[in-house]
Amino acid sequence: MRTRARVATERSDHRRSPESNRWGRAVRICIVTPAPPRSRTGNRLTALRWARILRDLGQRVDVTQAYDGSRCAILVALHARRSAPSIAAYRKRYPDRPVIVALTGTDLYHDIHRSRPAQRSLDLATRLIVLQRNGVDALPPRFRSKTRVIVQSVAPPRVLPSPRARSFDVCVLGHLRSVKDPFRAAHAARMLPESSRVRIMHLGAALSDSMARQARTEAARNPRYRWLGELPRWRALRVLAACRLLVQSSRIEGGANSICEALAMGVPVLSSRIDGSIGLLGEDYPGYFEYGDTPALADLMRQAEVSPAFYGRLRAACRLRALAVRPANERRAWRALLRELDVAK
């Protein structure tokens, strides 16, 4: 068994010149995420990216699964319910220090309306973070004034692969969980005419044996569907960049990493019409289908394949929205938040 320090914490000895703050030096910030080390889940990726940003802003950062009582000036916790014990423990030890709680889709659209620990996390937080602008409206009104929107950023590779000429590849990017409705694109592809060149490229780990069986069965029965499993992030981004579309079919999302990645790669998106996607893509985005509506998704995929005008509309809309996922914008948002908390001047 590993020691608690090795399991729970990724520490940085990285040093930069600290910005001026009320502590008079760089402060230590603890980022708590329930996702374990080496996990490729969205929460872990977000925590590690934020750690890099905060280090670039002159702070010292630990990334841990749970707050272990160590000294730090600020706690940043991802997930109001799952990180609730850490939030409560830190607030008990340091009642006057800042606590920043980042809200996931499960938090916003389920837990904060039903879970007492999640609700208490909202009360204990100094600031709340949501990952898209509609997330603010999902909160009870009394919490909105202390909520900030920080859209997740993506730095695309310098050289992007070109799409295949022989097929019209469509990417589904995300672990196989029921909330993601992971086989909706595969089912829609079955409805396309024989002449269609659509091929579904599904990237993500099966988080249960039943999901793995479904993926293998779908791949065996559906010649348009390929399940590539979990890939290193750099490879996943290359697969995404070589596709013509991303399909995001989830029931709930706080602000999907996959949409941000597609925008950064210049890959148009087809998405279920849910608040988390509308908050990133806008109410008037032309690529929505109602959640679970297989024929509507099939129709959108077919239009994108055969209609240059429709595909051009999708690309133009995504190009406009790509500005929001630039790394400089996310860094600027974190700098502004630290200034609010008197950590950076």
Write the layout of secondary structure elements.
Layout: H1 4-8, E1 9-11, E2 28-32, H2 42-56, E3 60-64, E4 74-78, H3 84-93, E5 99-102, H4 105-109, H5 116-124, E6 127-130, H6 134-137, E7 147-149, E8 168-173, H7 184-190, E9 198-203, H8 209-221, E10 225-229, H9 233-241, E11 245-248, H10 257-265, E12 269-272, H11 275-281, E13 288-289, H12 294-306, H13 308-321, H14 327-340
Parallel strand pairs: 2-3, 2-4, 4-5, 5-6, 6-7, 8-9, 8-11, 9-10, 11-12, 12-13
Antiparallel strand pairs: 1-3
Helix pairs in contact: 3-5, 7-12, 12-13
Going by CATH, the architecture of the largest domain would be 3-Layer(aba) Sandwich
**CATH class type of the largest domain:** Alpha Beta
Helical residues, percent: 25-40%
CATH topology of the largest domain: Rossmann fold
* CATH superfamily (homologous) name of the largest domain: Glycogen Phosphorylase B
What is the number of strand segments? 13
Instruction: Kindly give the count of domains.
Output: 2
What this model shows, in words?
- Helix content is 39%, strand content 16%.
- The protein is of the alpha/beta class.
- It has two domains: 4-152 and 326-340, Rossmann fold (3-Layer(aba) Sandwich); 168-325, Rossmann fold (3-Layer(aba) Sandwich), CATH 3.40.50.
- The chain has a seven-stranded mixed β-sheet, sandwiched between helices. Strands 10-9-8-11-12-13 form a six-stranded parallel β-sheet, sandwiched between helices.
- The radius of gyration is 21 Å and the shape is elongated.
